[in-house]
Every structure is written in structure tokens, then in C-alpha cells.
């Protein structure tokens, strides 16, 4: 149906978003197009405000106000600039912040190495990471990447790039998620949880 | 962060879409806000075109061009107006069309009965369905609803509403999905597949 071409264009645009397949793009486009309670108008106005007001922090890659660049996390003097937490996506910064334990700085790579999608080192914010470390104030780099084949390869690549520099490179612990059980853990996770078991005296 | 308020508003708007939880709304909003290759501008222009050009078919509820209402499926003289296929969402119409077998008309309910979400019969396009049947040209109503507790209750409710009217009410067969195996079928599905087994002579 040529006459619903704009709806087809919307489906294609939504399917470009991470984690949105063709089927869910179709579903989302139709839900938007139904325009209940003026949804389309609200969405357009909000996207225009985002385009006007939001940008990527030039230092860490987090989403920040255009008027606050570098972002608050990068300029907050109470945060420890000697520890850098490297994440894949800007959204992961919020997740680490919610955990409430980390008080250092961040660096978002904007993805991971993915030969399948053609994303090599140049597609990621790796050079700017090396530049920040070059500055000499950073003692430790925590690789807070996801846990899949591509993320592991990215962590490996970064560890190699950082070898020989005067920084400690660590990564998140693997283990049984809180609220879960052994039955749901794969053998690799369970092996890691056993190997790095913690004493109840300490915990 | 008050200064990224428009991004927070975008997250809330996206979380209103069906099947989008808080986590995925956050992820989608950030992916949009990153604005790679002018994504936000394209999305805004496309949504404005959709708002201008697309509407809900007054007869069947499918998405259609404003200039084509009732939609092409409703006005195509080659389609059999004696059989009406009732679906939950307008997007389901495309799925049935892709199956390539059905040549009747459609009616989208725009959801299903859901006490949890406060969606009763008045929230759905049930009265307009009854009005269409009242017209007297429809011989069969196929309830092509999903297969969960709320959808089954909706089918039950519709069957009761249609009792006593001169229409045959049918529903989609249950069985083993093509390309799947017995090991993945729940007992109810397997029981239905056994009960309604088909002869290889016929199929």
C-alpha cells in the first residue's frame, strides 16, 4: 500500500534501534500511529526538545544537557578521578549509578567490537579512552562490559591496549545473580562463582 | 538531573508503548538521543507525516491513509464480505495477510479484555463488530485472537455476545507450530494438536 508509505518509513526507522526486530518495529509503529490521547504530537515535541537540549558528554559519552558539557558526573569534584569505569552504552552508566557503590568517573565506548556488524576499534570511543589514561591521573580501569562473546572480545582487546600502561585493569565479578539460583546459572558462571567464592567473614 | 528533563520525558512516553518496559524505554530513548546520522530529525519528520497521513479505518480498524477510509481491504470488491476475521490489534491484520490464505474482511478489536488494565468491553471495538454483523451479510466470524488467559476470556465473551445470531463463530486451530517440535509444546497445545489431528489424505 503506497498510501501508507510514511508508516512503512516509521517501521524502518524504529527497526534501526538496538534490540528492536522487524516484528516489534511494526508493533511499535502501529501503536504510535494509533495516536491515542495525542501521542504523536507529544512524541514529536519531546523528540524536538531532546534534539535541542541533549547531547553526548565530550568526555565520558553520557547523555547530558547541551548547557552542561562535560556532564555533571565528569565535573563533580567529589568523585574520584583515579578510577575509571568503562561501559558499552551511555545507558549503562545509569545502571552502575543505581547500584550506588561506584564513586569514580565513567567512559562509554558506544558499543562493542562486532565483526558481524562491521564495528571495529575505530567505531568505538577507544582512542579517547587511551587519551584519558595518557593524562596520568587514572590508577584503575574497571571494564564493566556485558557478558557475551563480543563483549568479552572487546574487554580482551582493551586489556591488550592498556598493557604496559601504569593502570590496573579489572572487570566485574561473575557469579550467581542476587535472587537467582544455581539451577539457572550456566556452567561457566557457576565455575567463576566457585573460583571467586567469598568468605562470609568478609561479606 | 533536571537539565536532561526532555530525555526523561521521552523515556516515559516510550514506556507507554505495548511491550516496552522501563528498561527498554531507557535504552530506546538513549539510542534515539544519540542522534546518529541525524536520526532525531528523520524520526520527527516521519512521525509528523504519519500524524498527517495515517488514520484508523473507520470500518475494520486497520491503519490506512487518511485519503483511503474505509481502507483498501474493506473496499476491495474481490474480497469475500461474508467472512469476518476478528483480530486484537491492527498489526495482526498484516500477519494474517502474510499467511496468504484468508480472503475475507477484518475487524480489529484494538486490544483485549483486561481487568488488570481496566479494559472492559467498552474499551474495545465490540459494538461496531456487533453492528457489522447486524447488517446480515456476514456468515462466519473467525476469532483470530492470541492464546493467553485474557485473549481466551475475550474470545469467550465475544462468542456469548454472538450467540443466537445467524453467524458461525470459529477460532484459529491450536497445534504444533511449523518448524517446532513436540518437546517445545505445552500439554494443552499438544492435547489440542492430538484431538484435532488431520488426515494426511486431506492435507
Helix-strand blueprint:
The structure is a homodimer of 203-residue chains.
Chain A: H1 5-15, H2 22-33, H3 39-53, E1 54-56, E2 63-65, H4 72-75, E3 80-87, H5 90-99, E4 104-108, H6 126-134, E5 140-143, H7 149-162, E6 168-171, H8 187-195
Parallel strand pairs in A: 3-4, 3-5, 5-6
Antiparallel strand pairs in A: 1-2
Short summary:
The structure is a homodimer of 203-residue chains. Chain A has helices spanning 5-15, 22-33, 39-53, 72-75, 90-99, 126-134, 149-162, 187-195, and strands spanning 54-56, 63-65, 80-87, 104-108, 140-143, 168-171.
- In DSSP terms (H or I, runs of 4 or more residues), the helix count of chain A works out at 8
- What amount of the residues of chain A lies in strands? 5-15%
What percentage of residues of chain A falls in helices of 4 or more residues?
40-55%
Shape of chain A: globular
Please describe what this structure looks like.
Two copies of one chain form a homodimer. By secondary structure, chain A is of the alpha/beta class. Chain A is built from eight helices and six strands; from the N terminus they run αααββαβαβαβαβα. In chain A, helix 1 (5-15) crosses helix 2. In chain A, the strands form two sheets. Chain A has a four-stranded parallel sheet with strand order 4-3-5-6. Chains A and B meet through helix 1, helix 2, helix 3, strand 2 and helix 5 of A and helix 1, helix 2, helix 3, strand 2 and helix 5 of B.
Amino acid at each position: 500500500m503506497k498510501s501508507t508509505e510514511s508508516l512503512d518509513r516509521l517501521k524502518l526507522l524504529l527497526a534501526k534501534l538496538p534490540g528492536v526486530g522487524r516484528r516489534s518495529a511494526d508493533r511499535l509503529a502501529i501503536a504510535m500511529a494509533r495516536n491515542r490521547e495525542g501521542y504523536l504530537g507529544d512524541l514529536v515535541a519531546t523528540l524536538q526538545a531532546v534534539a535541542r537540549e541533549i547531547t553526548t558528554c565530550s568526555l565520558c559519552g553520557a547523555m547530558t544537557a547541551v548547557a552542561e558539557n562535560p556532564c555533571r558526573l565528569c565535573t563533580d569534584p567529589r568523585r574520584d578521578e583515579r578510577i575509571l569505569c568503562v561501559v558499552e552504552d551511555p545507558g549503562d552508566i545509569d545502571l552502575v549509578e543505581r547500584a550506588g557503590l561506584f564513586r569514580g568517573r565513567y567512559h562509554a565506548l558506544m558499543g562493542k567490537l562486532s565483526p558481524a556488524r562491521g564495528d571495529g576499534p575505530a567505531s568505538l570511543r577507544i582512542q579517547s579512552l587511551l587519551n584519558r589514561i595518557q593524562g596520568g591521573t587514572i590508577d584503575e580501569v574497571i571494564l564493566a562490559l556485558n557478558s557475551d562473546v563480543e563483549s568479552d572480545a572487546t574487554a580482551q582487546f582493551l586489556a591488550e591496549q592498556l598493557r604496559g600502561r601504569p593502570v590496573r585493569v579489572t572487570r566485574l565479578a561473575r557469579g550467581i545473580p542476587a535472587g537467582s539460583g544455581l539451577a539457572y546459572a550456566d556452567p561457566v558462571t557457576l565455575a567463576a562463582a566457585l573460583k571467586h567464592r567469598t568468605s562470609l567473614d568478609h561479606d
